[in-house]
Write a structure and sequence with these properties.
Two copies of one chain form a homodimer. By secondary structure, the first copy, chain A, is of the alpha/beta class. Chain A has a single domain, classed as Alpha/Beta hydrolase fold, catalytic domain (Rossmann fold), CATH 3.40.50.1820. Chain A contains twelve helices and nine strands. In chain A, strands 1-2-3-5-4-6 form a six-stranded mixed sheet, with helices on both faces. In chain A, α9 packs parallel to α11. Chain A is globular. Chains A and B meet through β1 and α12 of A and β1 and α12 of B. Chains A, B: Keywords: Hydrolase, Serine esterase. Chains A, B: Pfam families: Esterase. Chains A, B: Its EC number is 3.1.2.12.
């Protein structure tokens, strides 16, 4: 059977290995990069290969301009993944490639590096910008086929999701739209209400159509909380945002998500922590990764 | 009193702050960049300001091509600094600046980014390339003057040193040449015998003179172990090197340091750990930072 993934690098770090992979995506019609960290538990030969002990997965969605490498190098999930025993998957933030993939080279907040984790409907972008189906469906399925075949890794059934900035929006949006598919969701400095802020309006307009507000509502967390029912008493979305985040008031707007959830089944379930002095960088993310890791570990049955 | 350091950024991370600083150096005759991480203990207002509780310092010397930022972002010392309560100082790897500072723009392993932690004697480089006196004397003194003035931080008396690759050589060399000045020394993938390997020969030749072997011996750990007496029974230099380090056999050569120390007062005091599968990257460094942090914390009296 031909391999789905090409391994470009296999890097020993902490107790496990970081694999830098490339593969063809039917969704995006392009080659895609993805990094995965397999924790030390995966390499522990004494571990029994029974269904109950399969290693669960945390998906980390990166922010604007990032590749799978930024968080792999700077967020420092690896130590936590080893502590609790979960795989971490770092997808790319958009399709890549040459001029055949439409882009705006003058705008880092749209196009390549800014796929916004949705399925584009506008004709120009609809063929490639399908990051929603790619991240939530195709990628987990392909990873399961290739890396799950030995029965030790679970990329599909026992999984959680987190992300930063655009990826924080992507995590919350994907968690709500696929309610029940992820055991838990958290976010670092997420774009909470993309329909009303600059980055979101630009991407929603270009990918979904400026007058197609019905489509916008299908991705905006502030709309999704009104139509997706939280049926699990333990639902909680853990969020951290720094008070010195330069994008806090213009693009992130966590207070709008808090307001939107009022009177819905999600009221009180967004645990939004505004943390003094922190900015938007990986220095901020890495600081709160241990707390988010513990949160997900609990929901994944690891604690 | 005019400030010595200009603070270009003050970044909240973990429980403390990373300060990105610039200052004028008399040693190098240039402006220098340096990052320092002040741990959470520094910001703990309940901490008593008595001499005994001064926060000690770990100096981290980076490798070829690095600036103070690489390790600040990727080595992840901050969490460990908070755990034990020490400051981390990340100096630059050379003087910087325009054409007034001599360089070889076609060679990343010499000149800017490759100061080799020595005082150059060759006329072309002697005015600026004085990283030895800068790192071991001027910088600690300036930091103490400005940041130590409130009596909480100790950059001079209770300090340890570590480093990576060229910086690993710099740490060992500086520790031995200033025997007694540092409480402990460790290194990640150090260049152990610069006088006999490519990177070292090039830098020693250009900075010290190709026929000035007496000067080379003053910096090479394999020569220093023969003239510096270890008088402390607890002396131990902790070293990790990855078996998949691409520079292991050509430039690092830890076995030569082990051999050189035989029959000297340092015999058995280099704890060299060859670790399976690890490479030369920050993925390797960050993996062993917790072990090195604990090692230094013990020697700094924090455990």
């Amino acid at each position: 059977m031909p391999k789905i993934f090409k391994t470009n690098a296999e890097i020993a770090t902490c107790g496990g290995k970081l694999l830098k992979l490339t593969h063809d995506s039917k969704e995006t019609g392009t080659q895609m990069d993805v990094n995965i960290y397999l924790p030390k538990q995966y390499y522990d030969k004494s571990k029994k290969e029974c269904h109950e002990s399969k290693i669960p997965t945390l998906y980390y969605l990166s922010g604007l301009t990032c590749t799978p490498n930024n968080a792999s190098e700077k967020a420092f999930w690896q130590l936590q993944a080893d502590k609790y025993g979960f795989t971490v998957v770092f997808p790319d933030t958009s399709p890549r490639g040459g001029d055949e993939v439409p882009d705006d080279k003058n705008d880092w907040s749209f196009g390549k590096g800014a796929g916004f984790y949705l399925n584009a409907t506008e004709p120009k972008y609809a063929a490639n910008y399908r990051m929603y189906d790619y991240v939530h469906k195709e990628l987990p399925s392909l990873l399961q086929q290739e890396f799950g075949s030995d029965g030790k890794l679970d990329f599909i059934k026992n999984k959680s999701i987190t992300g930063h900035s655009m990826g924080g929006y992507g995590a919350i949006s994907g968690f709500l739209k696929n309610y029940g598919a992820y055991k838990s969701c958290s976010a670092f400095a997420p774009i909470c209400n993309p329909s009303v802020v600059g980055w979101g309006i630009k991407c929603f307009s270009n990918y979904l159509g400026s007058d197609n507000k019905a489509a916008w509502k299908q991705y905006d967390p502030c709309d999704l909380v009104k139509v997706v029912k939280s049926t699990n008493a333990s639902d909680k979305v853990l969020i951290h945002v720094g008070t010195k985040d330069p994008f806090l008031n213009e693009h992130l707007r966590p207070e709008l998500l808090l307001n939107a959830s009022k009177g819905t089944t999600w009221e009180g379930k967004f645990d939004i922590n505004l943390v003094d002095n922190f900015d938007h960088s990986y220095y901020f993310i890495s600081t709160f990764v241990p707390e988010h890791a513990e949160f997900h570990a609990k929901h994944l049955g690891l604690l």
